[in-house]
Design a protein that fits this description.
By secondary structure, the protein is an alpha/beta fold. Helix content is 47%, strand content 11%. The chain is built from eleven helices and five strands; from the N terminus they run βαααααβααβααβαβα.
């Protein structure tokens, strides 16, 4: 990987741990037994796409979920389910990214939304004592802020242009295969994290 100058990391499933099934389980507790028809790691309904592209408000998102499930859930219930998929951020990954910055420009690209990202900024500033998104990354790109999301190739091309970096000099590390395919369409080098593999494993194997 000697030609690689830039790393582009996904957030959920690469930097922090997530479990999409936990959200489905919380909705089951509310009597909604089939929320996985509407949201999985691989696909999701239009209201979630719009929320991740910053094209609807938090209230519009919550109302969209209520319309989807045909149950008059409270805001708190929806938020609790939505937050439940976010697990821990291992300290060793924070330390590794700091180390990787000595060798690469390290960027973040996350499909996220206003509810999640504001929660995470607050949580991690309290936990680590600094803004990890500003301190750890050359620049962090959030779909709801740039109004574009993975896996659309134009989102990757926009990011490359904004960062002023070349696709052939950049390695994109991601855990969702559809996003890997989108990245390949603009010429990015890619690595698909599967089977419980972590970025620390990639460092130990000298892949990064």
């Amino acid at each position: 990987m000697s030609e690689i100058k830039n790393l582009l990391l996904d957030l959920g499933g690469v930097v922090l741990n997530v479990d999409y099934h936990k959200m489905v389980d919380v909705f089951k507790e509310y009597g909604i037994m089939d929320f996985d028809k509407h949201f999985t790691q691989a696909k999701q309904v239009e209201i979630v796409d719009k929320f991740e592209e910053g094209k609807c408000s938090i209230e519009e998102f919550r109302n969209g979920i209520r319309d989807l499930v045909k149950v008059n859930l409270t805001d708190e219930q929806i938020d609790n389910a939505w937050f439940s998929m976010i697990l821990d951020l291992p300290k060793e990954r924070i330390e590794l990214i700091g180390l990787l910055k000595l060798k690469y420009n390290v960027y973040l690209f996350s499909n996220t939304n206003e509810l999640h990202i504001e929660l995470l900024k607050k949580r991690y500033k309290e936990e680590f004592g600094f803004d990890i998104f500003k301190m750890l990354f050359t620049k962090a790109y959030f779909s709801n802020e740039i109004k574009m999301r993975k896996p659309h190739p134009e989102s990757f091309q926009w990011l490359l242009n904004d960062a002023g970096i070349k696709a052939e000099e950049t390695l994109f590390i991601e855990d969702s295969p559809q996003h890997i395919e989108g990245a390949k369409k603009v010429g990015l080098n890619t690595y698909w994290l599967t089977g419980g593999e972590t970025i620390n494993d990639l460092y130990d194997k000298k892949i990064i």
